[in-house]
């Protein structure tokens, strides 16, 4: 059976969303040409206006969904202020979508250090050189900053900046959507009253 021949029984019978998400992500890794872990991240600014942008999911388990960023960036400041966020994965090749939302927590320093060390050296330099989300006077200014930090950390390990770390969304709701003929899609929502609670499942009208 191909992904586009998926029937409702293939995913509506489970009572646990994380293993289902893992299966869908593995399917996306086989069918999506670029960045199957790309996800739209929604936050809210101090005036209550929403912001959304694409980020890369860097890990997930039963604790939640993890991504990394500069805490001084726009999304970093908004997440630190509200500690709430939402995500939307859309895998066009599979005709599937997953939405989730919930409170946000900061990952441990050990988690952040481990992931930072795994990044390409150029990306680690970039974390130091980029004042993310703030005005940039010229491309040359950015290239100059990259050159300065490349020289500073020419030898040895590159430390993780204190302002660079990860967030974990601890979902209180996760919705799985799969395309069906005539727009009679399958939608299954898992929700719980609190992050430490048990999951309830409901089928939603398309």
From TrEMBL:
Residues 164-206 form the Pyridoxine 5'-phosphate oxidase dimerisation C-terminal domain. It catalyses: pyridoxamine 5'-phosphate + O2 + H2O = pyridoxal 5'-phosphate + H2O2 + NH4(+); pyridoxine 5'-phosphate + O2 = pyridoxal 5'-phosphate + H2O2. GO terms for molecular function: pyridoxamine phosphate oxidase activity. Pathway: Cofactor metabolism; pyridoxal 5'-phosphate salvage; pyridoxal 5'-phosphate from pyridoxine 5'-phosphate: step 1/1; Cofactor metabolism; pyridoxal 5'-phosphate salvage; pyridoxal 5'-phosphate from pyridoxamine 5'-phosphate: step 1/1. Keywords: Flavoprotein, FMN, Oxidoreductase, Pyridoxine biosynthesis. Homodimer. This is Pyridoxine/pyridoxamine 5'-phosphate oxidase. It comes from Sinorhizobium kostiense. The gene is pdxH.
